[in-house]
C-alpha cells in the first residue's frame, strides 16, 4: 500500500457564510468559480488581473465550495479571498458582513493519494499523525483524492509529524511517500504502537502541562468530552441523500489521466480563450444552475490534477443530465456535527470522530466512511446501513451526563 502526500502551491483562505447570506454573496462565489470573468473589467496593471492560484490554462489549483444544511464555506487561494470576496463583503452593511468569517490564518493544502486503503482507513491514517501533533485540520474527501487543510504556520510541525509516522521525503522534496502504511481498521493496541513516535514528536512541541493524548482511545475520549461540553449533537437531515460523482474531463490529465500545467500567475496563452476551451461548459452551466437554486447540499472540489469532484443532494442530479460520471444510483447519508461553538484551533475532531466510528463498526461496514469539513461543521458520509449504526454510536456519546 502506497500513500503520497503533496503540498499544493500557494496559501489558501477559508470563508464561512451563514446560510441566510448565501443569496447575497452568490455573485462573488460565482466569480471565483468562473475565473475567466476576472479579465473582463480589469486592465493588465490591476491586482485582480494577476490573481494567483491558477494554472497556466486559468483553472484553479484548488477550490472547494460547499453548501450544507449548517453553513456555506469556500476554500480558495488567498488572493481570490482578498481581491474578489472581501470587496464584495466590504460593500455590505457592517451589521450584515460581521456574521461572515474570513479566517485570518492562511492554510496550506495537502493532497493525498492512496493505493490499497479504503476511505475509512484513509481518514484515520491521514488525520491521526496531525491530531497527535496537536495540529488543527480540515478534511475533504473527494471522488479521486483526499485533501487536508492545515494552518500555514504549522508547516514544520506537519513535516515532523509525517516523518515520525514513517513517511519519507521524495528526492525532489515536493512530497512525502509512505510505502508501508498498515491496513486500516486495526484494533486500538496496534494503532497505539504505530503512533508512539508521533506522540514523542508532539510531546516535544507541546507546552508543559498540555501533553498530547497517549493513544487512540485517549484521543477519542478527549474529542467527545469536548463535543459534549460544547453541546455538539449529531443529526441526520430527513430525506437528504447524497451521491459522489465526477465531471467528465475534456482535457488530458494524469491523475488518473495526466497532469495539468503548473500554477502560474501569467501565461502567454490568451486567457480569454484558454479557460473556456479547457473546461466542460455543460458541466459548468449545470453547476451554476445548481448553485443558483440554493441547494440543500452541494460540495464541489476543483484540484489541479483531478477532474471536478462533486458530492451533492441526489435530487440535483436531473440538473446535471449526463455531465456526471460515477455511481449515481448509490445512496450516501450525511451525519452532521454543528461545530460553531468550537474554537477554530480545536484539534483531533476528524480523527476522534472517525476513529470512534471505525472502532465501533465491522471492517467491511466502515470501508465507505468519508469526511467533509466545512468552516463551521463536520459531515461524516456513510452508506444508509452504516449511518444507522453510526448514530447508535454517536447519540449516547453526545447526550450522556458529564
TrEMBL record:
Residues 185-203 have a biased composition (Low complexity). GO terms for biological process: amino acid metabolic process; carboxylic acid biosynthetic process. Residues 178-218 are annotated as: Disordered. InterPro entries: ACT-like_dom_sf, CASTOR_ACT_dom, CASTOR_mTORC1. It comes from the Eukaryota. Residues 103-162 form the CASTOR ACT domain. Pfam families: ACT_7. This is CASTOR ACT domain-containing protein. It comes from Hypocrea jecorina (strain ATCC 56765 / BCRC 32924 / NRRL 11460 / Rut C-30). The lineage of its organism: Eukaryota, Fungi, Dikarya, Ascomycota, Pezizomycotina.
